[in-house]
Amino acid sequence: MRLLLAEKLRDKQFFGHPVGLFVLFFTEMWERFSYYGMRALLVLYMTKHLLADPHTAGIIWGYGGLERLLISVFGPMTVQQMSSQIYGLYTGFVYFTPFFGGMLADRLLGQYRTVYIGAILMAIGQFLLASEQMFLVGLFFLIIGNGCFKPNISTQVGSLYPEGDPRRDGAFTIFYMGINLGACLSPLVCGTLGQVVGWSWGFATAGVGMLVGLVIYWLGSGLVPHQTSFKQAEEKARERANQPFSRQDWIAVSALVAMCVLNIMFWAVYEQQGNTLQLWADDRTNWRLLGMNIPSTWFQSFNPAMIFIFAPLLSWMWLRQSKKGREPSSVSKLATGYYLLGAAYLFMILAAWAVPDGHRGSVLWLVGTTFLVTIGELHLSPIGLSLVTKVAPKKVVSMMMGVWFFSNFFGNYMTGYLGTFYNTMPKERFFLMLGMIGLCTGVIFTLIRKPLEKALGKHV
């Protein structure tokens, strides 16, 4: 059946794009449903249940060794600080392994098979999280699985289009909407089940979401780019390996690496949404709306819902600017993303002044902050993904996608480290620190904009 489906739809287009884009859209949507469903619960699960009870913490396989290691480096920590460190390590390593997953695809298995492996491993990891004892083992499976899945499905989006195809930026924006549709739905489902019914229900539901994504990918396998055999993958890898880098290739790779280094700062601040801002949402936000008590994990739906709303509007605006020759360069968009991110956390300073300790404030503080974070993200993340597929030499495109995600490893770990100051600093100073990181990085990007644009050439 799937072969007939592929044959019938292979040359069709939907909204001006290959049908394969929408196979990848829905596969990634369900993978993000899985990931963000568990992320919505992760810090609350640790601070309110798993690590709050010494007996429960004691039965987690591997936790004693991890706790001793972290204490030897950072000294004694509270439950919140330990949870923040584990959150940072997990979300960091989720972006560490894509570098190696990209290498695995480029050199041996091909992107198609590597995505399959990643999806299976992540489904296993989500179901393991439903067991308190297997918590760290489940996180390990998710880390390895994501490394196989993440860089290669993103690279497959770029592979649907020939070089120079003007639809590519639009394709990544559509793909990014799929990411955020899944991320929007999952806190409403997994978060609610986890907080209201039981933590294990939330994690198990995230696992079911990953299996749905795997089935969609299998059904649409004939519509997405992939090598048809191990032999063909190896032949293509050898062919690419025999093509030496040109001077322009080295310049392009160097420019991408510079962007990735600055990218660390963005994610260090951005990922506080799942860490300290989720704690703010749980402890200092009034969630009684329309006569109902809403689970605080619904906060995790704000960002993806706004992306789903505003991504098409930004794409439309940039298209109009492009027709008039006024569209900002990709590098300028990245710099704007940092300024908006910094401004978002300056907004939280006002929230800290307005909502003293022990009180609960309006949810609108989080809405305003998330709006600025979201518009900043739309200026950075999909643009960066598209830029990597356009600029990176073909022989290392999956590996360079891994480098882009590798920068997220350092940024996400820094999220955990910065989060340890949440309860040791006055909240207004904590949010000022985050805001200044974003703004100062934007200034650096602005200062090096012209050299970067020159290095990237026609692709910006």
Summarize the structure.
The chain is mainly alpha-helical.
Give a verbal description of the structure.
With 460 residues, this protein is an all-alpha fold. The protein has a single domain, classed as MFS general substrate transporter like domains (Growth Hormone, Chain: A, Up-down Bundle). Helices cover 76% and strands 2% of the residues. The chain contains 19 helices and four strands. The strands form two sheets. Strands 1-2 form a two-stranded antiparallel sheet. The chain has a two-stranded antiparallel sheet with strand order 3-4. α9 packs across α16. It is globular and about 55 Å long. The protein starts with a helix and ends with a helix. The relative contact order is 0.15. The mean pLDDT is 85.
Write the layout of secondary structure elements.
Elements: H1 2-9, E1 13-14, E2 17-18, H2 19-50, H3 54-58, H4 63-74, H5 79-94, H6 98-109, H7 111-129, H8 135-159, H9 168-197, H10 199-219, H11 230-241, H12 247-270, H13 276-283, E3 288-289, E4 292-293, H14 302-323, H15 330-354, H16 364-391, H17 397-419, H18 427-447, H19 449-456
Instruction: Please tell me how large the radius of gyration is.
Output: 22 Å
Number of strands: 4
Approximately what portion of the residues adopt beta-strand conformation?
under 5%
Element string (H = helix, E = strand): HEEHHHHHHHHHHHHEEHHHHHH
The CATH architecture can be given as Up-down Bundle
Apparent shape: globular
Q: Major beta sheet, specifics? A: 2 strands, antiparallel
